[in-house]
Amino acid sequence: MGVAPPTPARRLTEVGSEAAQVIPIGIGEFDRVLGRGVVPGSVILLAGEPGVGKSTLLLEAAKHWARAGRRVLYITGEESAGQVRLRAERTDAVDENVFLAAESDLATVLGHVTAVDPTLLIVDSVQTMVATDADGVHGGVTQIRAVTTALVSLAKNSGVAVVLVGHVTKDGAVAGPRSLEHLVDVVLSFEGDRHSPLRMIRGIKNRFGAADEVGCFEQRDNGIHQVTDPSGIFWHQRQGDVTGSAVLVTMDGKRALVGEVQALANDTEMTNPRRAVSGLDGARVAMVLAVLQARLGMKKIGKAELYASTVGGMRVTEPAADLAIAMAVASVVNDRTIPFTTVAIGEVGLAGEVRPVSALTRRLAEAKRLGFRHAVIPAAGADREELPSGIRITRVDNLAAAVDACMPDGKPAFGF
């Protein structure tokens, strides 16, 4: 027997969306990944490695939220209130609408929410919270699930937006039970290299927007600042042509980023010459080297030390970078320069063919915006999209044609 529902089901056209209006935080790159902003009553999980800047970023978000006249309650379970205050002073995040409590007991946190009545609750971190009515060790699976369930219930019943800070495991996954990601509305990954100031928020799950958006930030002494045009970080704006350098356009989520690949070759007497790769997929670089040697007759590759790297700490793993890698290596090995106004986009196959890639229109539009005048792209699949005008496009179907298109200096495509 069914049970009579307290409220009848309504037509979808009769359900209002007022309760799910988006409120911008005020940080463009953060709002971009969230899907224009924060939805009241939503729960956001921000995960990242220790020291990457999660707390600093959320304190910056609290500042912007508070300066719009809205109350924020910041719960810190890992630091004292004094430590958070010092960071707030350093990053200019002190505001009377930001309320701070150093607390790890869940019931007390709920009491603070009732007393402060915030519109945004930040819990740093969910692993430090303790639910006294739940079993399990502090920070264990049972405790994390109980704490998250209670905070999700709070958000849905009160309309308070909740941001949870989460830890990550050694392999970069969100720590805790897998159900943690299912309970929340948005899961974000905050990534960065400790040797580089660049930080990125990557959407993993988003019930209110695209799940593959990326936001770029830069870590500085006075806090974290958004980078609205990150392409300039990843390529060197040189005035002359040099050998061993090629420009690519990669897709990070829905965002097109222009980057630079550099290659260096040194003669060596070693039986097994050294291969070193930074910022690229080592397996794909090895494959590209093998294709150049086998299909274009570049025998010198097998007898030289070869180094390949991206510029500015960029990490590229997608196959669309293959053509730029191949052109950079061919340039340095054959001592031929690629004009700095040329970009190379395409996947390389084992037969030496240049294969089509996704989002070609977006890639070319970004290259054009940054002043590049020539693009070498795959011949196959180019007619599926409406390519932008104002940039000269050369379609190639194999590596030999790509070398001739990228290096118009009159020398043969290969001469080893």
Automatic annotation (TrEMBL):
Database matches in Pfam families: AAA_25, ChlI
RecA family profile domain sequence ranges: 19-168
Cited PROSITE patterns: RECA_2 (PS50162)
Keywords associated with the record: ATP-binding, DNA damage, DNA repair, DNA-binding, Hydrolase, Metal-binding, Nucleotide-binding, Stress response, Zinc, Zinc-finger
Entry similarity comment: Belongs to the RecA family. RadA subfamily.
Task performed by this protein: DNA-dependent ATPase involved in processing of recombination intermediates, plays a role in repairing DNA breaks. Stimulates the branch migration of RecA-mediated strand transfer reactions, allowing the 3' invading strand to extend heteroduplex DNA faster. Binds ssDNA in the presence of ADP but not other nucleotides, has ATPase activity that is stimulated by ssDNA and various branched DNA structures, but inhibited by SSB. Does not have RecA's homology-searching function.
NCBIfam families: sms (TIGR00416)
Entry protein name: DNA repair protein RadA
Organism: Gordonia defluvii
Gene: radA
